[in-house]
Amino acid sequence: MEKNMHNGMQKPEEIISGPDFICDPVPYEYRKYYERRKGRHHVAAGIFAAAMIFGGVILNNLLNLLGYDGGFSETVRQILGVGHIRYVFMQTASDLLRALVVYFLPLFGLVKWHAYLTEKTYGKKIKEYGKGWYAGTFTPEFLVTENQEGERKFYYYNDIASVEETAESYHIACAGEELTIPKMYLDRDSARSVRHHLMRYCGACYEQSFVEEQDSVQLVIPWKDGSGQQEIEKGYMSYVRSRCRFYYTETKMWLLGLCLCYLLRLAMGDFSILSIEARVGLVIAVLVIPISRGTLLLMAKLAVKKRRQRIQSGTPVVMEIGKSGFYYQNDEKQKGNSCGWTSWGAIKEICEGKDFIIIGKVYFDKKIFTKDQMGQIRALCQKYAGRKYHFIGVESQGFGETARTFMPILCYVALMAAVFAAQNGWRAGTDDSSRIEVFYKSGSEEENQESEDDAAVNKQGSREPIYVLTPDKNSLYLTATDVYMNDCYSSYETNETGGFYISADGILYGASSNSYGELGLGNTDSYMNAKGFYREMEVARGVKHVALGNEFMTYLTDSGVLMGTGNLPAAGSSYVPVELMGDVQYAKCSDYGMIILKEDGSVWCAGTLYDEAGNVIREYSGFEQVMDHAVFATAGARTMAVIQTDGTLWMWGDNGKQQCGVNTRVAGSFAEPVQVRESVRMVWLDRLSFSSSREYPEYLAEEPDPYVSDRTYIVQEDGETYACGEGLEGETAFVKVMVSEE
């Protein structure tokens, strides 16, 4: 169904493209719950649960075989007419089948049932809130909006009587129809795109009663006692209750169900000490939810009480938002103290609701701000926080939703309790003399050796090769005996906000949001075209290599000088290219740091290495030399690596997924280089390629680069390829892999 707002004109569907903006009133947390309902490692969690269930059965039979549970019944063995080892295999197969039916299938049903209820609950919420969703596209003649049902409305610029931009929204009046675009439902790029197009096409009737602050805003908010404060406190408590939401992914349900199964089995078993401990564990598991919820509510009430005390003392709140971060001071003791500053990198999330905004962990009710102040705060947070800025809702989890969350768990617990009670009753009524037990000394040693050899052959034969993907296998030079530095240079690099590439004649071009001056053009302008995409701009000439961090860009000139622009580690913020170091062979950037290999083989680092949770692993003061006698150095998002002249591989940084080539039981991170491998020819971090594989203009897509992960890839001197990290975790850090081109 389409509605044309211009009489006597046809619907020009053939020229509609876009969208240029999306107005999305669906709260961010509901989409997050729905999209992440399976959990990041749900397959690994399911495999782990199966390994624990079936592995327990195999271990129990193995212990019986070794004589830890009595002697083997010769009478039964003679009646069956089979050898001891073969009988054990038959018994194990029977136990595995029983474990499949009694333990694993109910746990699998619990996970899938809960996943179905979660999908249904949040799918319904998204559909309800999504009724106000629409996408908008600007053409040279009209603005067209389209909702989820495909209904379109056309707003021709000739019919638009007025356009007003306020701190809260864009309001368009057109031939008896009105369109309001709330800014809180737009992301940063969408808000700028709407303003740009409206000013371009409707400049004559465009009225801007609100002008954004370009750099920073500082507010002094006096506390005022009165009836309005009760509404603010009530709104804050509603927000806290909405955060106390019970939500479990499939990954958590696998692990939770497995723990409950083992605790129930121990609690209802014959082991006196373990039974008591298991019962205590079950009580704790039952009480942990109301205790944690009550603790959060108590902390919220204490915060409200402290706020009332500040009101009575008349202490004002000082808040400042700028390029370097967010400052909040609500105590006279903190006045003038720099510890009140929080950098944008340290702020994990900024959430705005209809009545509040939360910057980091600080809650503000919108009633304490004027509309213009709130508009400035929103604009600056969107400008500096980018994708961390989200619109959320405040809706406490009702009794029905809570009941649906715990219904599968309660049914599973009841089923397992009935199963264990039945098993205990059966064991109590069974004569001990009728039990069939295994003893290790039965059967000949030749038969045992033959079975072990067969098992080894079967295990080796079932092992499948591990494949890893690369966008261009030939560019890796995997079969070359020597890899030259010219082959390692990157001519194309992208991140979430843009891309840079080097042309055949050595000219570096960039298309970026330029939030930190990465383009090196002396400003932070985004240079966006009419369609809302960033224009490709010439950055420098005589360039042979480019590398990107999250907030900066570096490039290597033909003369071996490393240049950089943006929020540079060690060099500070710069909107124009500055020289970082000379006599450089190679350089690579982590998220917030860089590693440099000089002509003399020395390795230098600058910036900060963080782990996946945002904790600092190593922070360098300026440019620091970390190693020498190196032939290659590179960096991933959170790790760094160096190959020395003797072929040894040294790594440091985040090891949370074994990507440093060391088992996580040894260390979760390394602040200093550690030797992890010998006879190494080449190393890649995070992606098996020298250049980025993402193509502009897909920098706005939610899907990540398919070749980027927390992995390390190496080629040994013998030409074999190995990898370690995400998806390859095990007792052995590096595993042999085969490279395949997608």
UniProtKB/TrEMBL annotation:
Coiled coil: none annotated. Keywords: Membrane, Transmembrane, Transmembrane helix. InterPro entries: Ran_GTPase-activating, RCC1/BLIP-II. The chain crosses the membrane at residues 43-63, 96-117, 253-274, 280-300, 406-426. The keyword Transmembrane applies. It comes from the Bacteria. Gene3D superfamilies: Regulator of chromosome condensation 1/beta-lactamase-inhibitor protein II. PANTHER family: REGULATOR OF CHROMOSOME CONDENSATION. This is Uncharacterized protein. The lineage of its organism: Bacteria, Bacillati, Bacillota, Clostridia, Lachnospirales.
